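Sample A.
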Amino acid sequence: MLGMPAGGKCGRQQYGMRPPMNPICANATTMADETRNLADRPAVLAVVVPTFNERDNIEEVVRRVGRVLEGLAWEIIFVDDDSPDGTAELAGRLGQLDARVRCIRRIGRRGLASACIEGICSTHCEYVAVMDADLQHDEGLLREMFERTRRDGLDLVIGSRFVGEGSYGEMPPLRQKMSRLATWLGTTLLRTRLSDPMSGFFLVRRETFMRHAGRMSGKGFKILLDYVTTADNQLKIAELPYHMRARQQGQSKLDTLVLWEYLLLICDKTIGRFLPVRFLFFGLSGLVGAVFHLAVLRVGLTALALPFLAAQGLAVYIAMTLNYFTNNRFTYADRRQRGIKLLGGLGKFYLACSPGAALNLTIAGYLYYGEGVTWWVAGLLGVMVAAGINYTLVSANTLDKNG
């Protein structure tokens, strides 16, 4: 019809009339216009936000970061560990509206520290900030962190709860105690000069970070301590105070496992150069299993009056089960199985340990029946010889990364 210009849902209007614009279309238009205005200005600051089940928070994170960094060429990178709540899908839709929003969806990979490293490696920005998606970090500090790093030639600026007017905010008392213990461990054992090595809120000069990234462990939740210790405390660092806010949406991922992961990182940075940390904790778990093994073996021989090999087999079976659940909870916490996968993983664990179990029974039986060795020595030596082969096979075939 004459005077009726063609148009899409957002652009259709009658000649001489201007209907109210759909708010979603208006937001999309505003973001698109701003993105086009910055098209000739490559981003200088990237904000990396690791996520897992944070769908309710990411729109607000983008809004707040955009407000604080207005006029600055920036991008935000969500690194999502395949959240079942649709975090990655929503981040992708936001990226369709604003090219400054990107999302890396990690399939079969887990861990906050490794997510941060992957996010930093994915950008070409000269400066990269890391912050949580739970809105507990004060995004208002981002511009000051950026300007301070650039002005003073720093390698790292940290948002700290322990300098100046910084504080825990409304953090529960138990988490405060855990944080203080972890801070003491980091500063004492690793001799760091940070007031808040547990902080997950910081900004780095990417060029400096990339020089050390290849030697970082990437384990657990605390990438900051990993980075600083890997760089041998040779970084130019400043700390700025911030007040930690309470989480508004979603559930905290922090529990006693975080402290365990932190201990793994401490061990990796102290003795990891001499002995693989996973093997160390696998061995400790095996030591507990060995004690339990001998107890079951004794019960089998005395209370149940079983032949030695039958009692040894029962002890092996029960000890393997105990080791599986212990390793699933702690040693391989970053690959932890849950639900139905837990039972499937147990079956894989039995299968992977079967060569070691056969070797265990063969050696123990030979020593007990052929050499006349005492029952507990024969049983223990069988366990020890099988431990190495079990570690190799289990690491390669069990507790896969999809847990």
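Sample B.
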Amino acid sequence: LILLAKRDLAEAERHARNAVRIAPQIAQSHNLMGLVLTEANRPVIGEYHYRRVLDLAGRDEPITLANLAWNLKNQGRTAEARALYLRSMALRPDVLQTVLGFARLEEADRNFTAALDLLDNADRVMPGNPSVELTRATVLSRMGQTEAALGILQKAADGLGPAELSEKGRLLDSLGRYDEAFVAFETSKSRALEGGARRYMADHATDIANRLQKFFTAQRLGALPVAGLRTDMAQPIFIVGFPRSGTTLVEQMLSVHDEISAGDELPFINDIAELMPRLLGSPLTYPEALTELWMGDQRQGLDELRDYYLNRAQASGVVRPGARFFTDKMPLNEMHLGLISLLFPQSPIIHLGRHPLDVVFSVYANHLTHGYYCASELPSIAKHYQLVADLVAHYRENLTMRYLPVAYEAVVQDQEAMLRRMLDFIGVAFDARCLAFEENKRFARTASYAQVTEKLYDRARYRYRHYLPHLAPVLEGLSPLIERLGYTVDP
């Protein structure tokens, strides 16, 4: 639980799994697994463990019902989640986290009046509770009542945590108070670090990037096999890109199409990289473990790794009936383009790019764990962005891929033209409904979940211009990359 609170999900999962191994008939073990896997964006497996808690208890447990409701909300199953919240509150109407979770569900489902009613009820029981007021600020912000939302946050200034400070910064940004917004983001980051948030794992990130570059060369890839195509199930579309580059927007557009199911952030490529030594029986780690494919007894190794991915996707329930494709938009999957090209040589890869300063600033304005915790500080975001960009450039020189680079700015400027280009690249017919992506009722489990319920807007394009003086510490280092990617820096 301590590790979970620090967002060290990988280490928390290791201990939670040991708890289940030691005590498989104890409800608390499965509750830990449910908590960790839900937070790690593997809600289908987390759901199983929450239901095991209820089975072992033999009765309705109000807290577990609320936890399961939050899990189902993250799967987009809002009607089921709402029913569970009602059952939980009928048993224990005084549990604050349950009320807040229910309000967040209604906010995510755009039922803002219902969310405010829940918060009003909570306020009558717990008047002036800061968590209630902060949630109210989020709802008001979604309703466009920015000044009212900011007023709530201003009153609670001393007690704001990192997430609330980031929300305050976003509200100030929307009001054009950019210097104040940056101070809020800066304070948010410093408070997170003071509270135990992890710093960027620079050495580890650099080591894996260097090893991937050295391994995935044109010469070596020419000697490696590739996995065959399975025709008995839907195939992945990889939407790759640095966090905050527009991947959620593109997934929302594409997943309106009847033939494309939304997979969201699937961890399976990362899982394969971690499990590869055991799956291939290699004494080496990834990527060097792929040298086992030259062995006579591992000639089918890539097909087995491919099947691991596809079977996990099928078990996760991300493929809706009738879909030919499902999306995988795990952030920074582009670090594994070499592995993806071996496992799925015929799968479309859509790579979202955006002005580097816009990406770096937007990551700074959020709390993310992707990218070896690079989001902890402004310089580390810029460093990891450069590291990934250099690796992608290497892949493009050495790999054969079904690869389509897409600029976020181009999508904003001419949505229909870019949508047609992407659907044609995937191999499905144009569907005009995809242009109204804001009507897509699925819940996007990312920091962009609110933005993608709005019509396409351009206010986030070149947002960096408002913060250029604050971005000066990283501008010089990023300037060569900005030019290489075809962007300029304009005041």
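B remarks: The chain has 24 helices and five strands. The CA atoms of residues 313 and 319 lie 7 Å apart.
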